[in-house]
Amino acid sequence: MTRLGAVAGLILAGGRGSRMGGTVPKPLVSLAGRPMIAHVLERLAGIAPILIAADDPALYGAFEATALPDRLPGYAGPLAGLDAGAAWLCREAPDCSHVAVLPADTPFLPRDIVQTLGTGPLPRVASIGGRLQPAVASWPVAALGGLSRWLQDGRPRAIRAYLDACGFEPVDVSAQPGAPNGDPFFNVNTPDDLLAAEAKLRQQLAAPVEPPHRSS
Q1: Which helix or strand (DSSP H or E) is residue 3 part of?
Q2: Which of 5, 13, 176, 210 is deepest in the core (most CB within 10 A)?
Q3: Could you give the CA distance from residue 137 to residue 99 in angstroms, rounded to a whole number?
Q4: Helix axes 78-92, 159-166, angle to 10 degrees
Q5: Alpha carbon of 42 to those of 3, 18, 105, 149: distances in Å?
Q6: Contact predicate 105/26, CB 8 Å
Q7: What is the mean pLDDT of the chain?
Q8: CATH superfamily placement of domain 7-199
Q9: Cα separation values, 39 from 15, 44, 199, Å
Q10: What is the 3-class SS of 159-181, one letter each residue?
Q11: ω before 49 within 30° of 0 (cis)?
Q12: Do the beta carbons of residue 127 and residue 172 sit within 8 Å?
């Protein structure tokens, strides 16, 4: 697989998904004929390595990615997934300077989201209409170096809290006509959300493809 610069990919798939009401982990719920996480993996095409932060890594063996458990006991939230990914990159891929982080339950992210986020000396965090999306970001791996201590010290476990501590740059992302309500960050949390996402994706699959224009 070719590499997009020195950027790795990390999908946060550790959410419990209790509101979905099923026995299958939310990232593996079928959406338009594929596991939901497969739609997010498409946004990382051309990137290597790709990591998946998951409660049960064994469930993700079918994907072309390395699944990682949290390094902390119990459910420590998405920051623990970031911590696990950063530790793996420092150990196994020290040439990766940045990591593009995406949630597993956001199947309508722009296909060029990684390029849109870009890279920089500070975390670059997606934003739409002035609303920050802390779970969609390009992180310098170095900025995650203090995360383990942050978690061990019992600091707030919200991504936004850590971003506020280390500093960040917002990156505007445009609305997506093909997403529910045009929201590219629409995340599937409930059965109703799943139905809405399914309807939108099926609508896209059924849309006719315009033939290429031929000049005379």
Answers
A1: none
A2: 13
A3: 8
A4: 60
A5: 14, 25, 13, 33
A6: yes
A7: 89
A8: Spore Coat Polysaccharide Biosynthesis Protein SpsA; Chain A (3.90.550.10)
A9: 17, 10, 15
A10: HHHHHHHHCCEEEECCCCCCCHH
A11: yes
A12: yes
Would you call 89 exposed, middle or buried from its count of C-beta atoms within 10 A (0-12, 13-18, 19+)? Answer: buried
As a whole number of angstroms, the distance between CA 44 and CA 24 comes to 24
Q: Which residues of 126-158 are buried (b: 16+ CB within 10 A; e: fewer)?
A: bbbeeebbbbbbbbbbebbeebbebbeeeeebe
Residue type, 109: L
Question: Position 35: which residue type?
Answer: P
> Which amino acid, one-letter code, is at 54?
A
pLDDT tens across 6-52, in order? Answer: 999 999 997 666 667 667 889 999 999 999 999 999 999 999 999 99
Q: Where are the domains of the chain?
A: 7-199
Type of residue numbered 22: G
Q: What CA–CA distance (Å, rounded) separates 2 from 106? A: 24
Cβ atoms of residues 139 and 122 within 8 Å? no
Compute the distance between CA of residue 150 and CA of residue 200 in angstroms, rounded to an integer. Answer: 40
Question: pLDDT, tens digit, for every residue of 94-105?
Answer: 999 999 999 999
94 vs 82: CA distance, rounded Å: 16
